[in-house]
Amino acid sequence: MFKRLPILTAILVWSVILTIAPASAQTSAAACSSSGTVLSGQALIVGVRVGTHDGYDRIVFDYASRNSPALAASTYEVSPATPPYRQDPRGNSLSVAGATVLKITLRGATFMKLDGTSSYAGSRDFVPGFPVLRELKFSGDFEAVSTWFVGLNGGSACAYTLSNSLVVDLTRPIPNLPSTSTN
Question: Which string of DSSP letters, residue by residue, matches 77-127?
C-alpha cells in the first residue's frame, strides 16, 4: 500500500491542477504563450477588463482594427519585470503593488485613433483586490507600443488570444500537499 502512495499523490496533484486551472489552460497547454500575434495589422485597444473566477484571475485587452496604412502586426509579450518600473516614454518611476511583477508589452497596439482621439476611456490603474491580481497599471502608449505592469500575489500567467482579444489568466498557486514520506 505504501509503495502506491507516490502514484496516488501524483494523481491527486494532477486532478487539483486540472480543477483549478482556467478552462483555457485545460483545453490546450500549447495555447499558453509568453508572446504572439493578436491581429495582422495595427490595432486600437478598445477595452481593458479584469475579473476573478474559481482558481484564477483574468486580464483581457480588447482590440479593433486601426485601419492604418502601417503593415506591422499587433503582437504581445508577457515577461517578468524588475524594479525600477518606468513610465513610457518619460521614464518617470512607477510603483506597482505585488510580490511579483510582470510586464505586458503590446506592440502595434495603441489607444490613439487616426483622428487623434482616444479609443479607450476606462481605468488605467486597476486595484481589484483579487486573490492573485493585486494591480494592473498602465505604463505608457508611445509610437503604437502600449505597456502595462501586473502586480501579483504569486501564481503564474497564461497568455493567449481569443478572437480580437489578448487574455492573460493568472492562476492561483497550488497549496502544499501533506508529505507522503514512507520513512
Answer: EEEE--SSEE-TTT--EE---SSEEEEEEEETEESB-TTS-BS--S-SEE-
Report the alpha-carbon distance of residue 4 to residue 2 in Å, rounded.
5
**Contact criterion met (CB below 8 Å) for 62 and 161:** no
| Secondary structure of residue 65 in the 3-state scheme | strand
Distance (Å, whole) CA 160 – CA 59: 11
Going from the first residue of the chain to its last (183 residues), give the mean pLDDT of each consecutive group of 10, the final group possibly shorter. Answer: 36 28 41 84 92 96 81 87 90 94 94 90 95 97 94 94 92 73 58
Is 118 within 8 Å of 111 (Cβ atoms)?
A: yes
Q: Which residue has the cell 500575489?
A: 153
Long-range contacts of 116-120 (CB under 8 A, 24+ apart): 119/44, 119/45, 119/46, 119/64, 120/44, 120/45, 120/46, 120/47, 120/48
Which residue type sits at 175? P
Which region holds residue 13: left if phi is over 0, alpha if psi is between -120 and 50, else beta? alpha
